[in-house]
Amino acid sequence: MYTSERKDRLDRLVRDVKREMGELPPDDIDPDHFKGKFSQFTPRAKRASEREFRLTWPLALILILVLILIWRYIMMGIL
Q: From CA 25, how far away is CA 18, in angstroms rounded?
């Protein structure tokens, strides 16, 4: 339940040094192996990653601002 971050960090450092010196076998865990695995097994995340076009927040805000500016010019009678 309670862990010591300092002790965990020290253990990890000792393990890394021993691995570099050849006293321990190399780590078999490859972080790139796990990349993208979550989206493969959840339907919603899979659909989201397969979509080609995503309307992101900055793009949506810019689009809203442009539409407001066009509406303002139309209402003022400039266009």
A: 9
CA–CA gap between residue 25 and residue 9 (Å, rounded): 19
Tokens 């076009």 identify what position? 53
One DSSP character per residue, 13-65 reads HHHHHHHHHTSSPPP---GGGGTTHHHHH-HHHHHHHH-S----HHHHHHHHH
Between 51 and 72, name the one with better pLDDT.
Answer: 72
Cα–Cα dist 73/47, whole Å: 39
Dist. CA 34–CA 49, nearest whole Å: 16
pLDDT by residue (tens digit) across 23-50? 877 777 766 777 777 767 788 877 777 7
The phi, psi pair for 12, rounded to 5°, reads -65, -40
